[in-house]
Amino acid sequence: MRGITHAGVGATAYIAASGLMQRDFSIFELVFVVGASLLPDIDHPKSKASKYVLPVKSKEGKRAFFVCLGIAVLLFDYLYVGENALKALGALLIMIGFTSHRNGITHSLVGMMLFMFVVHYTGTKYEYKYLTQLFAIGYGSHLFTDSFTKAGLPLFYPITKKKFKGIITYRVGSKVGDFIEMVILLLCVVYIIYTLPTI
Ligand SMILES: [Zn+2]
Q1: How far apart are the CA of 1 and the centre of ligand 1, in A?
Q2: Residue 172: helix, strand or coil by DSSP?
Q3: Does residue 160 surpass a pLDDT of 90?
Q4: 163-177 pLDDT tens trace
Q5: CB atoms within 10 A of CB 65
């Protein structure tokens, strides 16, 4: 699924969840959830998420960047902090460096839980108790919508590389796929326009 569609679905999921939880709308939270909804595609060197993060947009550049960053985080943790969340983050970054698009850790439940562990640590540290839930809404919406694509998801990676997908699927980038994503995006925009003033 394309980045813009993930962002639309993530924003819609946030607005819907805010309504259900009877919480006030917050632009910070919206941006955070949309960011989380784009995060899994960080494993693709040319995705929307990578666009703002990677200095070099090639496979090798992506690998070198994430592996170096992961080692730096682990070293920083070893020397100064000694916190499990940072160890998890370092390990995650190195794993992201070694996975190709949609084949590894960022599109799995293990990856989602590791990220949530890091986010939970940050939320607790800065006393923002909803951070983990907000992250789960964005990240979860990405995995959910990707499960309708033909390629499927390695949901239980690294235990198994087997890909899982929904009953109805479409091919990303095909004419039908583009049309479906356009309709989804349109529905998201309509939902947001109608719901936003009510929360
Ligand atoms: Zn994806």
Answers
A1: 6
A2: coil
A3: yes
A4: 999 999 999 989 999
A5: 20
